[in-house]
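DM between two lab members

TW: hey, do you still have the Eukaryotic translation initiation factor 3 subunit L entry open?
JB: yeah, one sec
JB: this one, 513 aa:
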Amino acid sequence: MANQDYEERPQTQELGYDPNFVPDSVKSFVVHLYRHIREKNVYEIHQMYESSFQTLSERLFKDTPWPSVDAVAHYVDNDHVFCLLYREMWFRHLYARLTPTLRQRIDSWDNYCSLFQVVLHGVVNMQLPNQWLWDMVDEFVYQFQSFCQYRAKMKNKTEQEITLLRQFDQAWNVYGVLNFLQALVEKSTIIQILEQEKEGLEQFTATDGYDYNGGSNVLKVLGYFSMVGLLRVHCLLGDYHTGIKCLLPIDISQQGVYTSVIGSHITTIYHYGFANLMLRRYVEAIREFNKILLYIFKTKQYHQKSPQYEQILKKNEQMYALLAICLSLCPQTRLVDETVNSQLREKYGEKMARMQRYDDEAFAIYDELFSYACPKFITPSAPSFEEPLVNYNQDAYRLQLKLFLYEAKQQQLLSGVRTFLKVYSTISFAKLASYMEVDESTLRTILITYKHKTHAVDSDGKITSNADVDFYIDEDTIHVVESKPAKRYGDYFLRQIVKLEGVINEMDGIKLD
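TW: and the structure you got?
JB:
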């Protein structure tokens, strides 16, 4: 999660950095971490990974890398797997604090290849915290995305960089990335495990993926999180159908291992919601954005000291922007909790009112919100090395923006129809045509378009309606069917009770003179 912000970070001078110098606190850190991993002490590993690593990074390595793996290897018996894990953290720290060189990007790819090969084909007798396993998958996808953006900026590449790109053309190759993620899903048999769990034959979710019988959780949990990784990669590529299909084995209507790590929870719902938005499944997107935004609203104070806190806040803001888009294209506010709705009105109320006008200003707002909240799309293909060298890092984003705005403009036709349908329960064809100042043939086309645009095909292949106002035609009369939401008073009364309790507590606290 810490590395989902995709802008290049400024290169920091590594003055005085000696990769072979190992401070005593780092010696102690690697020795203890190695011992806890060997003893499968997940609690201590988690404390060292989440707390000690961050503290040492902040204190000793704010703008330099950690000591090299060669410098610490002899403190941990030159253990091959531990060294791969150390390098994984080493590169993650480098990406977070500095700008990696091309050589370092390639070396990080090689390290992931070696690490995943051990997990897939070796005997890994470890238990690692879910947070670390999620961060591995998350960082793997982030570094792939970062590499694609870096490679696409060809204009100012040096001859040395171009030579390296030609030489290591398999580094961060899209097929390699997808194959590793898919291999982890298949080798872990996680899909079968989740199926068996529904029948009561497995305890994967109940134990948060941990193995309490002396086994390892690494392959199973990496396989599980790789399904989220696949969703994210396919979203970056603009293949939303495949992305959602990869996530199907995880039932996101329930709590699961994906909700045990806040970064995983937010990444899953952000990409799932965005994919549904792009597939015109607005109701599903609104439901999921509403749930996660309500969850963040209630729990964000518990994450203030977490290294992921800034990312949580950023994704929170992006999902409010996506929710504003969804509700402007599909006005189903009844699906949104009152708490989320009031936050949304505060942030985007004025813009949402302007988006309903469907003029140039409205489309500029759609453009602005989409550009702010969308994933950082990538072009995965290798660049052309022919002169003149050009940058193509914005091409994928421009294409997705164009497709989205085309869809938003088509909704312009429907805004007039929806306005009239909301006013009438029945209206004749001729009357509606005259109100809309079109002939009956054009009106028929507009109504068919309305039907098409307010329906979508869900993951099971069923046609679902996004319409807040629907209709059917009987001879020459249009009959309107408006979905009347059941009024919910509970939220309102609960909020007033909490306010009243607050006032009573304040009054009790005032000491009378």
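TW: got it. Residues 395-423 form the longest helix (29 residues). Confidence is low (pLDDT under 50) at residues 1-14.
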